[in-house]
Request: fold
Amino acid sequence: MKKINVGLIGFGTIGAGVARVLLENRQVISDRLGAELKLAGIADLDITSDRGVKLPEDMLLTNDVNALLGNPEIDIIIELIGGYEPARSFVSRALQSRQSVVTANKALLAKHGNELFALARENRVDLYYEASVGGGIPIIKVLREALAGNQINSVCGILNGTCNYILSRMGDEGADFTEVLKKAQELGYAEADPTFDVEGIDTAHKLAILTSLAFATPIAFDKIHVEGISGIKPADFAFAREFGYKIKLLAIAKKRGDCIETRVHPTMIPENHMLAKIDGVFNAVFVNADALGPSLYYGQGAGMMATASAVVADLVDIARNLIDKSMQRIPDLGFQRAAVIDRPYRPMSEIISQYYLRFSAHDKTSVLSRIAGILGENGISIASVIQQGRSHNGDTVAIVMQTHKAKEQDLRNALTEIDQLPVIAAATAVIRMESDL
Ligand code: HSE
Reply:
């Protein structure tokens, strides 16, 4: 039986999962592939810790990455070290040596994906990346292959399990952000340094990739407006419930005409929308396509075996291309190169949304009319208002409004004015509301 040799760089949790899947599911993989997918070598700085996987005796375990990179015996390199460097150098070297690469590294692709895809094309090898978005959910394959007959109108997703876990618990328990984050860290759901997750950067890395796949445009992480979840208060969940909404950190990519809109921010979505029902560490992507209509892809967005499942699926796809000598059969972003063009991005100031506004006001007469007046002067129409009873811990009260659709810049102008009023005690909290995803 033909053998395809695989070299793994990075023997952490996901790497150990990949080794387990390759070894434990060897038979089903070769039944599907018609060839053996052989784990020929692993490189990691630490080659002594026990990862709970019984590695074959003839397999090379080394802390010298050069034993794998450029080795003509190794057909496919798996990069699982994460981060920008040395991942970028390793992947570049592999591609230049005509080794195909599988990576789970969204940060790397969000920043250097265009250059790495070009290298893969020049060297007629494949660079696959299913595990980079949504962990085990095969969303890359969906956008690149399964929806090839569709124009995509929008892609919206819950792409970060840490944030979804925190928001779900805050919503269920009325708990504070810091308290839930601490619990998530204790349970191993959140990193010791959670900045990339809770500030929306990890979600934006993933959205940059999905946007390019959906709309045939080079990866452009810098075009994404990013806001995280650390400013959301328990009171916002209570008010959201009164309006019939849930709060999620959403990645949103829409195309209107030729113009793309990409943003990551806490979002109120109607509680009967499918995305509102995604709780805990799970991920989901909601795609609106012209022929298929709406569809939802749901599953484990992270974790050892789920992510390994996606990595191994990529290995099988590449191995099939190697056997058929059809590298680059599926274009990196699912579109022929000439069709992948720079497109205009709508500036955030131009987006149209409904808004949830929570004003902290001193409990004085005519506050409500002054706020409403300024909103009206800026063309913002109020859909509903909730005024909380008197505060027991001072003289501030929460006044909460839901607006009709308005332009972001008009809202910003109004809030700049409102937040300067002497009757306003703190900056107004704003959460965008999306009803037509
Ligand atoms: N840290 C991510 C999450 C998983 O919490 O979903 C890797 O992207």
Q: What stands out?
A: The chain has three domains: 3-135+304-331, 139-300, 349-433. The mean pLDDT is 96. The first strand starts at residue 3 and ends at 9. The pocket of L-homoserine is lined by residues 160-162, 197, 202, 301-302 (CB under 6 Å).
